[in-house]
Design a protein that fits this description.
single chain, alpha+beta, 4 strands, 41% helix, globular
């Protein structure tokens, strides 16, 4: 997967068979619609809107994107980091997504 600050979205594009830029925008739009979640986590909606823009990636709100993507695309996403695994569970029966996070870079686990 490219090291271009969009690696998480490139990984999802591999599984979802759609452009990474579309996934990025869909995630930001879905995120914006989660009013209670945004309020409960003290998130500034202006920062969420920035996530949809190219060249913006290093924001605290980005930490929520794996959860947002899991809910939006109805897929369980597992993120492997060293010996740890963080899972964002969705109850659908769709194929699970496994990603590796190392040095701030996401890659596909096969």
């Amino acid at each position: 997967i490219f090291i271009d600050f969009y690696c998480f979205f490139h990984c999802l594009a591999h599984f979802l068979k759609k452009p990474h830029s579309q996934i990025r925008k869909e995630c930001a739009e879905y995120f914006l619609d989660l009013d209670d979640f945004v309020q409960d986590n003290n998130i500034d909606k202006n920062n969420i809107q920035k996530l949809a823009n190219d060249r913006i990636w290093n924001r605290n709100e980005f930490d929520f994107i794996p959860y947002i993507a899991s809910q939006l695309y109805k897929r369980t996403i597992h993120i492997h980091q060293g010996k740890q695994k963080i899972s964002f569970i969705h109850k659908s029966q769709k194929k699970e997504i496994h990603l590796r996070l190392e040095n701030y870079h996401y890659d596909i686990v096969v």
